[in-house]
Structure formats: structure tokens, C-alpha cells
Model the fold of this input.
Amino acid sequence: MHHFMTRFIVVRSLQIMILTALTVSVLASCDEANGGEVGRSVYDHIVGESDLSTLEDAINLVDLLDQFAFDNPEGRDYTIFAPTDEAFEAFLQSQGASELDQLDPEVLSDVLKYHIVRDSLDSEDLIDSSDVITVQGSSVSLSGDDVESLEVNNINLTSDIDNSLDNGYVHEIDGVLVPPSD
Done:
């Protein structure tokens, strides 16, 4: 009887492990088919990209992490137009600054919010739109007939676009979007 129970437990454990492996495999392939990165937020993507470190610093400086993390208060998906480090460097120079902390925190917060759209939009969605409203409250204009010519407020999207994450999309851009002044 002891041998039978041991064998039953081993067989049952193997069945559970096989079912678990199959479930994980199916879930991963479904997510890959949808283009998403399993378990990664838009913020995780930004942190993982070496050419977005200034954007990461800016998000942390003005405490906008809720907009980019899984547990954002509105439970929404977002599209992020993510300026590269080079874009931020040019923006800082245009503002007479060399470091992010030299900027007015409210201005920097508005600038960052102007890069966030409360919807999950891939490049095809952007091509099909003429403008979208940002978290900052103003709209950005979109133009371009295809992915290669796609622009937001006349700023080019880089080749690193359509990064599909669990809570939205990240599209890198080669400039910083500045909201219209009131």
C-alpha cells in the first residue's frame, strides 16, 4: 500500500507540473502573439532602455511613477511618446539648463504629461488618427502615411516603436514635446 501511495503522489505531481508548464507556455505564446512583454509595465520598459535614462530620471524627479506603473490609480493603459536621452539633452539646452533639477518641477511635470495618452495605441492606430488628447490636457497632432514617416507634433518617431507592454505602448521619439502655453 505504501508503494502505491508513493507512486500515486509521484504521478499526480508530474501531472500537475506538466499542466503548469503547458499553461505557462500557452499564456506566453498568446502574449507573444499579441506583441506584449509578459509582466512588464511601460515604466519597466523605460528603465530597461539605456537611451531613456533621462526620461526615467524625470519621471522619478516629479513623482509621476503612478502614470507609468501597473498599479496606476486609474487602472488604464497608456501610450508613451518617450524622448531619448539625446532629445532631453537638446531640450535642456533650449531651456538654459544642464540638469533636470534646474527646471521648474511643475513645468517638467506638464511636459512629461504631454507625452502620455490615456489609451493603448500602436503605430497603426497613430497613423489612423490626426490628433490625440494627452494626460496634460492638450492634444498632440499626428501625421504620416506609414510607420517611417510618422510624426507627433512634427517630431519623428525613432525606429524603436510599438513596444507593447502589459499596460500600454512606448514609442521613442527624437524630440521633447512641449505643451502649448496658455
In short: The beta strands are 36-37, 78-83, 116-117, 131-133, 139-143, 151-152, 155-156, 163-165, 168-173. The first strand starts at residue 36 and ends at 37. Helices lie at 2-33, 42-48, 53-61, 65-68, 85-94, 105-113, 123-127. Confidence is low (pLDDT under 50) at residues 19-35.
